[in-house]
Each structure stands twice: as C-alpha cells, then as structure tokens.
C-alpha cells in the first residue's frame, strides 16, 4: 500500500491524479474535478482518520446516509458514491489498495426509486418557446441569432459560442456543423449538428 495508510491520504493522492487527468481540450480543469471534490467531502467528514484497509461496504453505506441527511437527491447520491468507488478502483490499479476492498464496495448497489429516504430530483421542464422568442427583441441581433440557432439545433451554449465557418459543411441541402471542442471529445466521439433551412437563414 506504499505510503498511503488513511482515507485522507488516499483522497489527496487521487485528487493529485484527477487534477492532471480531468482536463478540457484546452488543458483547463474540467467540471468533473469539482464533482469529485464534492463527492469526497463527506468521506473526509465521516472518516477523517480511518485506515484504508478498514474501508468496506458498511462504511460506504454510512457515508451514503450522511448524503441523505444532507438532503441530496437520490440520483446525485448514486453519482457521488460512484465517484468514491472510482477512486478505490484507481487505487487498486495503482496497487495502493487490495482488490478485495474494491470487490466489497461493488456489492453496494445504487439507491432505487421508492425504496429509499433520499428525495427525488425535481423534474426540470423546458422553457416555453413563447418566452424564448419574447426575449429576442431585447437582445442584440447576434445574441438573438445565437439563441434561436441553439433552440433549433439543440446546440450546447459553448458550441454556439465557438461556432466557426471553417467547422461548417455547407455542401449539402442540410448543413453540418462539426464543433472542434465538445464534452465527449476525449472519448473520440465526433459531434455533428445538423442545420436545416431556418438555421441556415439565421447564419446567412
């Protein structure tokens, strides 16, 4: 287990790894780094001196109970427990922890809807299109065009902000935009945004 003996030491080692691994295409810290910090905070609160070899399923469930008491929603709790498991998996791959510890933690399944005290996340509904179009006269022409183009195509805000003519294929009846940078670029997934007649009119 090297020089790592307690959970806080493990967290520090994992954060050092994460700061160099979870970067956006420009080399800046990605949002995932913040998610990891939030997920690991309850671990440090509950077990500030626990030896790493004593971390098992019941202690993981204890951390989950703390998250429930913090009134985090069920899906968020499942995601953050997943981060803790991911940290332990990394430690096993680095031969810091025994695979037995990871095997034990994997037995802790995610919280199920209707079978937990954890609250459900309120459903986020889309804004009525009438409200979107009511805003357009109060913006600049460029911003109004960006808003309507995003509404028509489903582009993410960053994609419409970084839009460049060189990333646009106008050879066919339907145009295709290939963002140079997007959230799944590290997975080698090509992002394609199709733009129909109204979107083309806006761009012209």
Polypeptide structure, described:
- The structure is a single chain.
- Helices cover 50% and strands 4% of the residues.
- A hairpin with a 5-residue loop joins strand 1 and strand 2.
- Helix 1 runs antiparallel to helix 2, helix 2 packs across helix 4 and helix 7 packs antiparallel against helix 9.
- A three-stranded antiparallel β-sheet has the order 1-2-3.
- The protein has 204 residues and is mainly α.
- The mean pLDDT is 91.
Keywords:
single chain; 204 residues; mainly alpha; 9 helices; 3 strands; 4% strand
Q: Look at the structure and give the mean pLDDT.
A: 91
Structural class: mainly alpha
Number of distinct helices: 9
**Physical arrangement of strands within the biggest beta sheet:** 1-2-3
Name the overall outline.
elongated
Poorly predicted residue ranges: none
Biggest beta sheet attributes: 3 strands, antiparallel
SSE ordering: HHHHHHHHEEEH
């Amino acid at each position: 287990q090297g020089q790592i003996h307690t959970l806080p030491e493990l967290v520090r080692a994992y954060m050092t790894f994460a700061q160099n691994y979870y970067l956006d295409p420009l080399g800046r810290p990605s949002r995932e780094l913040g998610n990891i910090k939030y997920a690991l905070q309850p671990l440090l609160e509950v077990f500030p001196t626990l030896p790493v070899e004593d971390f098992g399923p019941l202690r993981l469930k204890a951390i989950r109970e703390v998250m429930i008491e913090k009134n985090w929603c069920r899906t968020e709790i499942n995601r953050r427990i997943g981060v803790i498991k991911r940290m332990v998996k990394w430690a096993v791959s680095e031969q810091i922890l025994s695979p037995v510890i990871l095997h034990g933690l994997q037995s802790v399944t995610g919280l199920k809807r209707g079978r937990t005290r954890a609250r459900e996340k309120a459903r986020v509904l889309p804004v009525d299109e009438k409200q979107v179009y009511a805003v357009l006269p109060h913006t600049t022409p460029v911003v109004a065009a960006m808003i309507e183009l995003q509404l028509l195509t489903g582009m993410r805000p960053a994609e419409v902000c970084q839009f460049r003519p060189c990333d646009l294929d106008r050879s066919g009846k339907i145009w295709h935009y290939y963002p140079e940078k997007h959230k799944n670029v590290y997975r080698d997934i090509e992002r394609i945004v199709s733009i129909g007649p109204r979107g083309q009119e806006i761009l012209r």
